[in-house]
Amino acid sequence: MADLWWVMLAVGTVILFGIMGTALYALLRERRGGGVSEVAMLAGGGVVFPAVTLLALMFWSVVQGPEPATVDATADSPAPFRIRAQGHQFWWEFIYPDAPGGPLYGAAEAVIPAAAPVVVEIASDDVIHSFWVPRLAGKLDALPGRVNHLRLSADRPGLYAGQCAEFCGNQHLAMRFVIEAVAAEDIDARLARLAATAPDATLPGAEDFADHCAGCHSADPRTRGGPGPNLAAVATRSTLGGVLPYRSADDLRLWLTSHRALKPGSKKPEIMADAEALDRIIDYLESARP
Amino acid sequence: MTSDRSEADRIRGLETIWAPPKGWRALSAVNHSIVGRRFMVTAFAFFLFGGVLAMLIRAQLALPGNAFMGPEAYSQVFTMHGTVMMFLFAIPIIEGFAIYMLPKMLGARDLAFPRLSAFAYWCYLFGGLIVVGSLLLGMAPNSGWFMYTPLSSSTYTPGINADVWLIGVTFVEVSAVAAGVEFMATILKVRTAGMALNRMPLMAWYLWVTAAMIVFGFPPLILGSILLEIERAFDWPFFDPTRGGDPLLWQHLFWLFGHPEVYIIFLPAAGIISTVLPVLARHPIVGYTWIVVAVVGLGFISFGLWVHHMFTTGIPNLALSFFSAASLLVVLPTSVQFFAWLATLLKGRPEMHLPMLFIYGFFFTFVIGGLTGVMVAVVPFDWQVHDTHFVVAHFHYVLIGGQIFPALAAAYYWLPHFTGRRMTQTLGKVVFWLILIGFTLTFLPMHLTGLLGMPRRIYTYAEGAGWEALNLTSSIGGFILAIGFALFVVDMLLQLRTPGKAVRNPWRTGGLEWAMDTPPPSYNIASLPWVRSRLPGNDSPDLAGELAEGRGLLATPRNGWRETLAVDMIDGQPDQIVLLPGPTWIPLYTALATGTFFVGLLVKIYVVAVLGALAVLACGLVWVWDSGLKEDPERLDIGCGATALPHPAATMPPSLWGLVFLLASNGALFASLVFGTLFLWTVAPNWPPPATLPADVLSRVVTLAGLALALGGALRALRVGGRGRDGARQVWLVVATLGGLIAAAGFAAVPAVLTPPMSGHAYAAVTAFAGAYMAFHAFLGAVFTAYAFARGRAGWLSAVRTVEVRAAVIWWIYTAAAGLVTLALIHLMPVLAGP
Fold first, then answer.
1. B628 in Cβ contact with B648 (< 8 Å)
2. pLDDT for residue B2
3. A22–B contact, CB cutoff 8 A
4. Is the distance from CB of B601 to CB of B229 less than 8 angstroms?
5. pLDDT grade, residue A68 (50/70/90)?
6. What is the overall mean pLDDT for chain A?
7. What is the spatial distance between Cα B113 and Cα B178, in angstroms, rounded to a whole number?
8. Which residues of A touch B367 (CB under 8 A)?
């Protein structure tokens, strides 16, 4: 990709200077007018030159470019790591369909094995979004009614930032997410830890959560829940709603009390819980913090 | 001196006949110079409005975390910026230019259909006001200028916002298609004597291809907008994937329009370069034929590229490769033109006047836009930069570079034509440098912003993203650009108002538009030249003077007619005298009726919409009733020893060509519908449908019989009428009318009785729509045939005056053909691909 860009930039710059140079020469030279072969200009410059250049570019881009990212690679062997990225207004849901012990549900942050083939199944239930992690692959749209398959591979472990690339409504910009690549041998342990990350159900906040939140959100990583993101591991995430950095319980309180102002246009309804109930809900969700 | 006397009489006669009305009656004027000026001024006003929106965007993005605009306001502003610039400025400014300039370049006194261009103007103005007005009410479209559904569906955009776009823009597109038909017919037929195809000014070629692209390229979007509006208003699920619709269908229909649109904008601008550059380079254009071939080729290729806007939707790799290659192919016809321009510069002795400065600005900016265009045609590169600011930078380079710089060159080049005075260049140079520097500062860094990952259409960004300095630079550049345009306005106002030295043909060119007084009189030229070359002004030392003295064709007015010539479209031999209409209110009334129809749809009071539609039909009939002759005309003298028939007695007057092009446009809409139906059958999720049309034989037989009667009856009427058997002609017209009504009833049965509930599945929706489309056409055909009958009764038809009958025949040929395809589509597809 980077090579492709630099080559195109270099050739393009030469062409730009060539054309501008010729035009300026025609204007500034001493002796005006003169012999120039019309056919050489029209056939050579207008047809042969771009045709040769473009053929070379096509050849180069086929040789250098990444393999087609959209191929359905589910039949590959060894089987690639599957993860589903489901776009919602305005957050990303991540599902691990093949996790040991059954599917796992999460949001905004996802984990994949590094240096291993990964297939992202990209889908949407509402409007069109586009899944884009610039450092891992090109973008591919999340279309309602279809599943697109994106094949990618992270060279080394690390955090890879992603964002929605198709305008999907007023909080399009809040659809940021993070893909974490972990060493391939650690992936099962990480998934097991995800499966075990959940708020402490014995806390009194569990009941308040059931009253006020559970209509939309699940707090169980094994249950998908309603239209809102799965909150089992919310305490482990680095942002809230894609817009607010999440470091402590205070951030969560700020989010819960003023998310309408922080993320105008979000589908999340106002929370009707009183102050004490809110405290208990925050304690409950925070209890999942390791 | 009698000859002086008669010359003065002739001029006075022309002035009286062609005089536009004064005062408030000026609104009824149809003269092309007036309508063209109105178009251009209105388009420029919308350009300034769109520019203010751009300034709001740059103000918002200047700083990270800026709270200047909220997300909803930002969504409306960027949607409207794109919509206003593309639909209310870029296309209409071309239409205005062509309406004003085409007849002058073709040596004609007006366009083929002056009332149609007046109607196009009013539609444009009203549609534009609906779109712009919505922003002032805070209800503007907010789903982006390409209105991707489902975001623009009633579920996710429940307000009136998206309806404003769908209805307002369609209204404006009606205007564009009208203008396209006008230009196609005018360039083919309404030229001066001797102007064979290969003697036409290059601008005529460019504008003809542009017009053809409008005529064929806009219908897919018009269809898409109609379908989406029906989905929003009546819940017919054309685009809803849960019920057999497909959001990708919208994207195909949109970009089937959207990509040709780019070349519709670019081609006239390239035409300006091909016109102005040789004049200032003091050398005739090099490679006239090459350019014509390139332009026609570009027109064709541009319809095969639309999928390159959809590289990230997950379409198959084979399609990716095909459309990537096609996108690269389009470079060839463009580079042929570039090298023709360069060769002209090299062979000539270029003079650096102000318009040339803007042409060099065009070279610099458009080449960069073209090169980044090649980059985004490369699929893996596009996957990264698609929907980032790189693409924003790219298309501003293409659009501003490809249209605004040439348009500014044109404005200064033709300014003396409007004022009749020599222009001053001082302020214009400042304008040029401000615009070039402001533009480069705004959009060159924006490529990098995109490469660093900033997506389009986000209303703000966080500090530390690494985009701060680049965005601030772009914003500062944007304001310099705005100052440049403000200064351009000041310069234009000054030049239009300050008295200066009168001058005729200041650039010393042989182009016909300069062979007249400037500012041009209402009739353009006192007599029409018989041209023998591409630059007739170079053939005789004082062409303008000769024409003004009446030493040309159609010099002496007669019968109070507005006359101009129509020619054989290939060799340019004169074959008709076209009698043009004078001032009339009917275009304005028709546009008001059309507006009533659209506003009725917009506010969802459908009674108003139906009344509006009936009013449009009534206005249309009054409109056409006005023209024609009640007696068979003789061949009339046109001067230079030649004669020609007035157009009502001609076999193919321009009006019938207009009808043919209108039906071609309609055919493009119908073809889009067929494409959509097949697309849904083969590609959309949730097919086949749960229920299909019943195998009802009766309705098919009745429909086919109706179509056969209508077409057969119209053909017989033409035949017997041509032999002078007026009574038999009238009988066959009645037969054809009845046949049309029967066919209409047969097709109407599809949506009314036969289909399963339309909201249940896209199959039912698209089938019902096809039936309704055909019923509408059959009904209109019946009305037109009945109209021909009425014309016959009133004495407008004879063995040689057959225009109305011919029109009915042409209409029925189209309707019968489309009807057969429709019947096959709705009855065979369930059998071929059904459950």
1. yes
2. 43
3. yes
4. yes
5. low
6. 90
7. 10
8. 15-16, 19-20
End-to-end Cα spacing for chain B: 89
Residue from A7, A16, A19, A36 to probe the interface with B (highest B Cβ count within 10 Å): A19
In chain A, what percentage of residues exceed pLDDT 90? 78
Beta pairing, strands A239-240 & A109-113: unpaired
Binary contact (A165, B455; C-beta < 8 A): yes
* Listed residue (B511, B508, B552, B577) closest to B199, CA to CA: B511
Nearest CA in chain A to B462: A243
Output the pLDDT for position B1.
36
3-state secondary structure of B582: coil
- Choose the closest CB to B156 out of A66, A69, A169: A169
Judge: B382–A173 Cβ closer than 8 Å, yes or no: no
pLDDT of residue A1: 61
Residue A75 has pLDDT above 80, yes or no: no
Helix (H) or strand (E) holding A1: none
Classify A277 as helix, strand or coil: helix
pLDDT of residue A183: 96
How would DSSP label each residue in B519-573? SPPTTS-SSB----SS-GGGTSTTHHHHHHTT-SBS-S--TT-EEEEEE-TTT--
Whether the pLDDT of residue A72 is over 70: the answer is no
Q: Flag if B367 and A19 touch (Cβ within 8 Å).
A: yes
Closest to B375 (Cα-Cα) out of B300, B316, B450: B450
User: Which residues 108-167 on chain A approach chain B with CB closer than 8 angstroms?
Assistant: 122, 126-128, 130, 132, 134, 137-141, 143-146, 148-149, 163-167
CB within 8 Å of chain B, chain A residues 197-256 = none
Integer-rounded Cα Rg, in Å, for chain A is 26
d(CA B643, CA B646): 10
Contacting residues of B for A47, CB less than 8 Å apart: 332, 335-336
CA of A192 vs chain B CAs: smallest distance (Å): 32
pLDDT of B680 reads: 95
* pLDDT at B44 (0 to 100): 97
| Interchain proximity A8–B381, CB inside 8 Å | yes
List of chain B residues with pLDDT < 50: 1-2
CA distance B766 to B238: 7
